[in-house]
């Protein structure tokens, strides 16, 4: 068996312009991939912005505040009173704690939860927004 003949079967000279054509294909594929990646990033940004905006948008929820941790602000205010009467189920207490930790409007009430001596009638309600 002659190995030189085998190599000649596999390796042949490129036609003129073949390498340039292949490089062009790679370049176009790279541009396409970059464009697709940029479009995906833009889509993710838009979806995140819409989500954040709808979470804190006052439209339609101005009387209830915002929904954080599965509770609206007005529900959280009501639950703080219940908390001081020690009538909260553990899972509701967890929701309330999460809301008070995360909500920018109700954050001040968090300290009152930690101080059980505070009378329920003196709880600072969140400002209207
Ligand atoms: Zn709140």
Question: What does this 3D model show about the protein?
Answer:
With 129 residues, the chain is mostly helical. The protein folds into 2 domains: 3-56; 67-122, no CATH class. The protein contains 5 helices and 2 strands. It has a two-stranded antiparallel ribbon with strand order 1-2. Helix 3 (73-84) crosses helix 4. The N and C termini lie far apart (88 Å). Residues 117-121 have low confidence and may be disordered. Bound molecules: zinc ion. Zinc ion (ZN) binds at residues 65-66, 68, 73, 76, 99, 103, 105-106, 126.
Question: Mean of residue pLDDT?
Answer: 78
Low-pLDDT stretches: 117-121
Give the cofactors and ligands: zinc ion
Order of helices and strands: HHEEHHH
Rg (CA only):
32 Å
Q: Which structural category do the helix and sheet elements fall into?
A: mainly alpha
Which strand order do you get reading across the main beta sheet? 1-2
State the distance separating the first and last CA atoms.
Answer: 88 Å
| Sheet with most strands | 2 strands, antiparallel
Strand content is: under 5%
Our count of helices gives: 5
Total strands: the figure is: 2
- Note the quaternary state here: single chain
Which geometry do the CA atoms define? rod-shaped
Give the total of domains: 2
Helix content estimate: 55-70%
Summed up, what is this model?
The protein has 129 residues and is mostly helical. Helix content is 60%, strand content 3%. It has five helices and two strands.
Key attributes of the depicted protein:
two-stranded antiparallel sheet, binds zinc ion, 2 domains, 129 residues, mainly alpha, 5 helices
